[in-house]
Structure formats: C-alpha cells, structure tokens
Amino acid sequence: MSDKLEVLKYYLYYKYRRRFNSREQLERWQSRRLSAHLDYVAEHSPVYRGKKRLEEFPVIDKTFMTEQFNELNTVGIDRDQAMEFAVTAERERNFTPKMKGTTVGLSSGTSGRRGIFLVSDSEKSRWAGYILAKFLPGSILETYSIAFFMRADSNLYEAVSSKNIRFHFFDIYKDMEEHTKRLEEIRPRILAGQPSLLMMLARAMERGSCTSGRRW
C-alpha cells in the first residue's frame, strides 16, 4: 500500500471510527489492543523482554527513557548516534534523511533537556491520518495550504502533503520580515505556530504590514 493510501486509511479510521455501545465493549477492545502492544514490546525491546503482564513492566519517566534509550527502543538505534544525526540535520537545516529507515528528531527541550523521538513509516502514516481527521475544518478533498512555524522541519510532514494539501515550513530562526513576504505569496488557509509568534503576526496585520492573514 502506498503512503498516501495508508494515510487515507487512517484518516477514515479516525474520522469515522467505531463508537462503543457500552463500557464493557470499550474495555474489551482496550484489553485486546494492550495485550497486542505488550507482546510486541516484550519481543522487540530489551527493557521489556520476557515480561508477560503489565504489572511486570517498569514505571518510567523522562530520566529513565533517556538513560535506557538504547535498550528501550525497538529498532536498535543508539542514543548518541541518534543525537548526532538529529543535531546534524538541524545544523544543516536538512530534515529529509532517515536513520535505519526511521525518522529521528529532537524535542523542543522546554524542560531543560532535549529528548530524541523516533518515528517509523507506519507510525508516520497513522500520525498524518489522525492530524488530518482532527485538524482539517472540512473534507480532505478540499484544497488546503497550511503554513506552520517550527524550530525544525521533519519528513513527517511529507506524509501529509498531497496535490490538494500543501504544508509550508517556516523556520522560526529566520527573519520575520522574510516570513511575512512569503505568507503574502502563499496566502495559507491555515496557520499554525507558537502563540507568541501568532500574536506577532496578528499585530503586523493590525499595522497593515501583513495582509494575507485576512484569509487565515
């Protein structure tokens, strides 16, 4: 199945997914999904290997995840190598390459310590389908131009882009005047970014120095 069809499958699932008629029905569904997930991580993650019941799994926090990164992840990626890979991508502003077929990125580090995230192609398609199902104001068949302001781009967003849905990455490290000019050219239907940045754009609109926002 192509990436686009995979994304559409998850879009339809999250947009029109089943509703449960009772608490018991929901809990049975949750139990099956949890059992399947525990079986997978017990087989593929050294930290969980050999464990059978949820009560046997360790309670983890961010410190544990950072220290046990190599044993915790299920794809055999080394933390130091992943960190170097992600830092290089940010320094060169090239977010296309993958590591062992896996998307690698850095968290924003708002808690004081930057973390690493790993995303498989399957998880990328599921994420994209969920975002489209919950984020788009109308049908997926409509045309959308979406501008998003972030610290780093990611090939995650390639899974969402299509002929009628276009994502435009705006690097927050670049000059705001350059951004406003580009916004005027793109005239996006949807704008996403940090609240402080959106407030700056709103004030620019009030001053008349950025007019494309009338369509956001």
Produce a short descriptive summary.
The protein is α/β, with parallel strands linked by helices.
Structure, explained:
- The structure is a single chain.
- The protein is an alpha/beta fold and 216 residues long.
- The chain has a domain at 134-215.
- The chain has eight helices and five strands, in the order αααααββαββαβα.
- It has helices at 3-16, 23-44, 62-67, 69-72, 79-92, 121-135, 176-186, 195-207, and strands spanning 103-106, 116-119, 144-150, 165-171, 190-192.
- Strands 4-3-5 form a three-stranded parallel beta sheet, covered by helices on one side. Strands 1-2 form a two-stranded antiparallel sheet.
- The protein is globular.
Radius of gyration computed on alpha carbons: 20 Å
Distance between the termini: 34 Å
The largest sheet has its strands arranged as 4-3-5
- Strand elements, count: 5
Taking the sheet with the most strands, its summary is: 3 strands, parallel
Query: Which percent range describes the beta-strand content?
Result: 5-15%
